[in-house]
């Protein structure tokens, strides 16, 4: 694979990305621009990749590097990508080794832009990004947060781990299809907390791993992704907008707002079904007589049922998850079918959680039940693999819906 690095301060973060690629066995040719070397020098790229690096087309000309590198690549990742590089790539300019490589590459290309908010939002950059996406490139949405200097906003380089995961997914086959391009998908992730007092809450064991795997996979397939994250302690998935919430009612507000123009909503979060009737403003103290307080609960809104009934967009696809254990009233699948009907969603991903097998684990095993009667068994595998099957099912159902 080729790692193109352009002249932005985030070039130092690309060194960590490079390490992850090489440590996982990838053969990486780094192609820095001259400006990138102002930030991080050639010895760093060379030492971490184990190969010489060049920025211009005039070195080792007999090996024709300006076409050879691009032709031989399985994936080209430009990280960070400056506004200047995006402009050159969109217009087919080729005045150094990286831009020549981009013109000759026929493999998937990922751009990871990092720049100040004003540059990212400039009409010229917007148009260049749109052109690159139309041509099938993956242009990752920058993260929001602290930028170089004192300002904050959209434009940050996403966590290198997340870019690595995105690229791995693309190399594994996901992301070469752009069946979600032009779609807006909303994914809820994590578990909500319901406060008893300022320091205590009722919560659950959901880690957010499955929701984040779904977000990553959708971004790689070209979707605009909004993640509503309830108490997730993971790095933001590259390319997704992340809205943070704590309680089920906050989750509901955020999901309903994001779902207004969504083509698909996937409720992978575990919202608490109940919340304390009253939240104590002060920390609840032990009683002098040793008696324990009782907690009265009220039911929370069912977001999945609500979103299934009040679709933001006609033809949108709603997906729920059901963590079931099976009981005297029915098997895991029977309970799943009943839940699918009760909630009114299009697809229900049923996990057997007897013994707490799924929480926090990188793996998952599920059966996807469809409202039209179909069902797809997904064998035990990574949460990333399950995410791909879920998006396959969503994409089929969205095929005829206008973008
Ligand atoms: N869900 C939701 N709002 C809630 C509770 C759950 O949107 N208040 C969603 C979850 O995100 C998941 C699906 O509903 O996609 C199934 O959640 P589950 O807790 O298994 O279902 P319950 O509604 O709790 O059903 P039951 O208590 O009957 O098992």
Your description of this structure?
The structure is a single chain. With 403 residues, this protein is an alpha/beta fold. It has two domains: 2-171, Flavin prenyltransferase-like (Rossmann fold, 3-Layer(aba) Sandwich), CATH 3.40.50.1950; 184-398, CoaB-like (Rossmann fold), CATH 3.40.50. It is 34% helix and 23% strand. It is built from 14 helices and 19 strands. An eight-stranded mixed sheet has the order 12-11-8-13-16-17-18-19, with helices on both faces. Strands 2-1-3-4-5 form a five-stranded parallel sheet, with helices on both faces. A hairpin with a 4-residue loop joins strand 18 (363-370) and strand 19. Helix 1 (11-23) packs across helix 9 (160-171). The longest helix is centred in the last third of the chain and has 16 residues, at 383-398. The chain starts with a strand and ends in a 5-residue tail after the last helix. Cytidine-5'-triphosphate binds next to helix 12 and strand 16.
